[in-house]
Hints:
Distance between the termini: 15 Å
Strand content: 15-25%
Number of strands: 13
Helix content: 25-40%
CATH superfamily of the largest domain: Glycogen Phosphorylase B
CATH class of the largest domain: Alpha Beta
Number of helices: 12
Order of helices and strands: EHEHEHEEHEHEEHEHEHEHEEHHH
Amino acid sequence: MRIGIYDPYLDDLGGGERYMMTIAKCLSKDNEVYVFWHDRKDLDDIEKRFSLTLSKIKLTKNIFDSKTSFIAKLRQSAKFDLIVFLSDGGIPILLSKKVYLHIQQPITSAYPTIKDKIKLKKITKIFCNSNYTKKYVDDVYGVNSELLYPPVSIYGNNSKKENIILHVGRFRIMNVKTQDYKKQRVMIGAFKHLVDEGLKDWEFILGVSLSDVQDRDFLAMKQSAEGYPIKFLVNYDKDELWQMGSKAKIYWHASGFGEDLNKHPEFAEHFGISTVEAMGVGAVPVVINAGGQTEIVEDGENGFLWNSLEELERKTLKLINNKNLLEEMSKKSYQKSLEFSDDNFCKKVKSLLND
């Protein structure tokens, strides 16, 4: 088959781009796969950042840019057997034999117009990255979308553990209009409070990616951590980051804390790739009870979910003060992470697109 892939944020280097390009990689083994984009360097950057082999993927003219006329887009799309389109809620009109719409974040816009409903009839299938996203998509569009969890690199639990709490996340998120989306300042405050209350011989490490290392807000956050055992790993290669992160015993995540998630469900983690990656190196997750995190972590089984900072600190101390519990949960968190491996993802992609 001749397959086209479109991701409007290909130069963002986020989890969504890894998701879409892993789909491309999976399908390129048995098909001719093209990405609608203008710059091969962006594809090379994704390949390097996420350790993906994309050599069989070809670029083709981006028919979705503003310079391409509607008629030209239709004409070019007709040359494809199947197109996978990453959407933020919009519904494309295409003439490929099949069109698969992928949505990665909760949609809360008005219900679709008559025109949108007509467009939806031309969509072969809609699939989402979590049940959290799916719930909103199904409600808005009146569909029963498919679930396809993101692919996650599982690095293995082979390092000697140290007294480290880890967090990994970008400092600023494109298209999310809230400050401190990942709540890194909140977690720094919680760790400082633990230290002030007597926690000793533990370190909090934040693996942070950001486009500008001189970002004033980032520098202010970093300054607020001075005098405490808090370390920042900035813009590290992903494999190097997780090699270092594999020493961590506990993983923290807090996206959505303090937000009105009924009004802005997109402020919670839509899935939680970094949480699964941390579990894949044996770190026990202690993460907020919101968004896609609840589909990954079973509270009290392979990690802990929390609703308040007091609960975050209390459950963290429970692990710190109980070595056997920590080791048992570490094994269970690793086993859970295997459900989201790249290999399982590829199998599900092929099954989804062949239905």
